[in-house]
User: Which sequence fits this backbone?
């Protein structure tokens, strides 16, 4: 038997219902904030992710679904959505047009990670990206949109924020950190030893407890921010305070992608287990430039859809539409014809199997139909249908001609 690949799964109808419920409502909220839908290809040039997510990141270093296509090009299944949206923004020369652009997107992403609960190799994200706004009000705006989405679905979360500095304050801090890391190198794990050379600030993200213990005395970026980054971060915190949005400043929050500058954030949920980040994002003021565009600030986030679906409960199904059942073989062609008429009005289920009234009522209830329409010998003789309104709990016989016209219910 051929099975789905490890870390990849089918989204079956039951879960799809939740998926659609999530997408519809997240889309509505993103649109309320002025975001417009964008769709970019799932397959992109490998160089796009090397130059944006960063060669030293785990995603590019270890997790890319990368291959050479039949034309000899190195291509890659997107591991995340931001890079493709930025590529599209630059390719279509939106960086040359003044003004703020806001996009949202959703779809599959691919990372060759070790699968476990909440961590897949094919997973889905809902993301937003805003270009052309460097005012820290936008940082707050983006956090508020994400918070509104999570609140809509009743998710329990903690918001963690940090500032990752800019091209002015990050390089001197990095030097300071590297010096410190070499002093404590013997106590670090092999991954962290490697990070000293490739991407030192990622040591703060190490899950190894002994690394975390000896990193306690390491210098932190928070106290090395330049005036501009510091003021911007203070502004974001002040506004969140004013709005009553609770947050924790987490100096270990460095994010797994290299393009971030200034504000970075994650929403984690204690209801999720080890993979507890339900969404993450931040500013990336240099990324458009890295991808050959005109310098344009950017900020966004992405929600892990599988993770949020684990936390969402569907509202009780509204009963609507029709269920048709036959209690007599001769009634099947009639219910087929009536069902066909009703499909133009509402969701309609037709059961071709002859069953008892009780069995039909049970099936109608399972399908969340509002009207259970049953035809048996008596109804055939009297040119009528028997209908039970499963909401009002009313039963009646309706003349065929009335029912066909849509009256009598
Ligand atoms: P990210 O933190 O790598 O950020 O991913 C965002 C979310 O995707 C995570 O918080 C998590 O919920 C989900 N996720 C990540 N990897 C997996 C996985 N293997 N299985 C299941 N869910 C996963 C980004 O991707 C950035 N592009 C976000 C962003 C947009 N930053 C700015 N704009």
Assistant:
């Amino acid at each position: 038997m051929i099975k789905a690949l490890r870390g990849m799964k089918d989204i079956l109808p039951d879960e799809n219902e939740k998926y659609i419920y999530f997408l519809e409502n997240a889309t509505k909220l993103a649109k309320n904030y002025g975001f417009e839908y964008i769709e970019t290809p799932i397959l992109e040039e490998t160089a796009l992710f090397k130059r944006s997510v960063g060669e030293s990141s785990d995603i590019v270093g270890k997790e890319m679904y990368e291959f050479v296509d039949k034309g000899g090009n190195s291509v890659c299944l997107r591991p995340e959505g931001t890079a493709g949206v930025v590529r599209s923004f630059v390719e279509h020369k939106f960086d040359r047009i003044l003004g703020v652009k806001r996009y949202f997107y959703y779809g599959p992403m691919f990372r060759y990670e070790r699968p476990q609960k909440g961590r897949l190799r094919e997973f889905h994200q809902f993301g937003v990206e805003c270009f052309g706004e460097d005012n820290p009000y936008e940082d707050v705006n983006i956090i508020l949109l994400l918070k509104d989405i999570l609140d809509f679905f009743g998710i329990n979360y903690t918001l963690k924020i940090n500032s990752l500095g800019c091209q002015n304050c990050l390089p001197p801090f990095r030097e300071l950190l590297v010096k410190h890391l070499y002093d404590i190198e013997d106590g670090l794990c092999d991954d962290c030893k490697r990070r000293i050379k490739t991407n030192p600030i990622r040591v703060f993200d190490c899950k190894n407890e002994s690394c975390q213990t000896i990193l306690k005395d390491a210098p932190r970026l928070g106290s090395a921010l330049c005036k501009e980054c510091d003021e911007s971060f203070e502004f974001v915190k002040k506004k969140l305070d004013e709005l009553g949005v609770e947050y924790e400043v987490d100096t270990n929050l460095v994010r797994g992608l290299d393009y971030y500058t200034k504000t970075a954030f994650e929403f984690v949920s204690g209801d999720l287990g080890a993979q507890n980040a339900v969404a993450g994002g931040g500013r990336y003021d240099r990324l458009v430039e890295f991808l050959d565009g005109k310098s344009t600030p950017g900020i966004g986030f992405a929600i892990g859809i599988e993770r949020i679906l684990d936390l969402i409960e569907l509202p009780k199904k509204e009963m609507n539409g029709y269920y048709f059942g036959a209690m007599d073989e001769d009634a099947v062609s009639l219910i087929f014809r009536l069902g066909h008429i009703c499909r133009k009005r509402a969701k309609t289920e037709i059961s071709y199997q002859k069953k008892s009234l009780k069995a039909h009522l049970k099936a109608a209830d399972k399908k969340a139909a509002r009207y259970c329409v049953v035809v048996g010998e008596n109804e055939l003789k009297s040119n009528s249908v028997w209908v039970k309104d499963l909401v009002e709990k009313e039963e009646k016989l309706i003349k065929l001609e009335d029912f066909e016209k849509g009256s009598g219910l």
